[in-house]
Amino acid sequence: MRVAMFSAKPYDRRSFEERNAPHGHEITYLEPRLSAQTAALAHGFPAVCLFVNDEADAPVIARLAQGGVRLIALRCAGFNNVDLAAAERHGITVARVPAYSPHAVAEFTVGLMLSLVRHIHRAYQRTRDNNFALDGLLGFDLHGKTVGVVGTGRIGAIVARILRAGFGCHVLASDPCPDETLASLGVRYAAPEEAIAASDIVTLHCPLTPGTHHLLDAAAFARMRRGALVVNTSRGALLDSEAAIEALKSGRLGGLAIDVYEQEADLFFEDLSNEIIQDDVLQRLMMFPNVLVTGHQAFFTREALENIADTTLANITAFARGAALENAVTVAGTRG
Ligand code: NAI
Fold first, then answer.
1. Average of per-residue pLDDT across 150-159
2. Ligand 1 touching residue 212 (CB < 6 A)
């Protein structure tokens, strides 16, 4: 099948080319991100392959449909960037990669947490300047602390296990569908308000939906323990960044590690080291010594890239053969 891959990076090309032989799809690798301005590039392709910051809103989907697109093959798990209702109206099938390596994201999350708690990112910079002083690097033990895990699906459950079994943390989880197997490990479920308010560290692993948009806003920060830390490797808009800045300034929020950012679409995955960044909120966040920002890299392991390529190519093959698509995403499915 002919596929137009948007936001294609060299590592995407490598992993897809390495694994495409049994499928034989004709993939055109396009650097631009999908948007209203770039949708015309997909003209004549029956399938497009999209990543997290490609924008498939209703007008873009209408243009894709006009150009003959019948399949949107997401090479990611989240699908908040696709207007599923619009896709259904235009008869476009949407498929995703539900799980490629939850371990990749969970392990990275714990890495961010440790960096934040022990100031490893600051120590790295200091020692490069031959500054071996410890002042300002005082951390605390994770052992015995309470971590609020919001969302215990594939990724959150692994984070909860690592923290509970590995570090001996108290884990206060919140999820509308609790994972019974976590209870036997001593993970306690609570209402989201309690998990956020009663924890020393809060880590977010729920999807971005209208109900979770700005889950951590000024009111939530006000309810948190003074000096609590927040880690977000899920989706940027779960966190109100401007409210986070105020909470950091007042000391209410003791530290923040983010791999995702609400306005990341124009920034992340690009080398902008020679540019003047116009996003004052992100720039302000990065000025805090107790804020750690990474550019949506939690998924980025060899294993994850291989799994992403395998599942995406298999989704496209199944669609081309008219077979049932087990990884289809539908409006009805998301209500579920
Ligand atoms: P999942 O679908 O397995 O788990 C999500 C869990 O959140 C489910 O158990 C669901 O019941 C729960 N949930 C839904 N609404 C909630 C709410 N209001 N409060 C608490 N829990 C709620 O998803 P998975 O694979 O664990 O991924 C989690 C998120 O991580 C994804 O939505 C995606 O946005 C993000 N992600 C980030 C990556 C990165 O590189 N930074 C890579 C992959 C995923």
1. 97
2. yes
Sheet with strand 188-189: strands edge to edge: 188-189, 170-174, 146-150, 201-204, 228-232, 253-258, 291-293
Name the residue with the closest Cα to ligand 1, atom 6. Answer: 153
The number of domains in the chain is 2
Average pLDDT score, the chain? 97
Model confidence over 79-120: pLDDT tens digits?
999 999 999 999 999 999 999 999 999 999 999 999 999 999
Look up the CATH number of the domain holding residue 259: 3.40.50.720
- Which 8-state DSSP code applies to residue 166? I
Are residues 108 and 136 both part of a single domain? yes
Residue-number span of the structural domain to which 324 is assigned: 2-100+301-334
Ligand 1 neighbour 156 (Cβ under 6 A): yes
Domain check: are 93 and 118 in the same one?
no
Name beta bridge partners: 202: 148, 230
The whole model's pTM is what?
Answer: 0.93
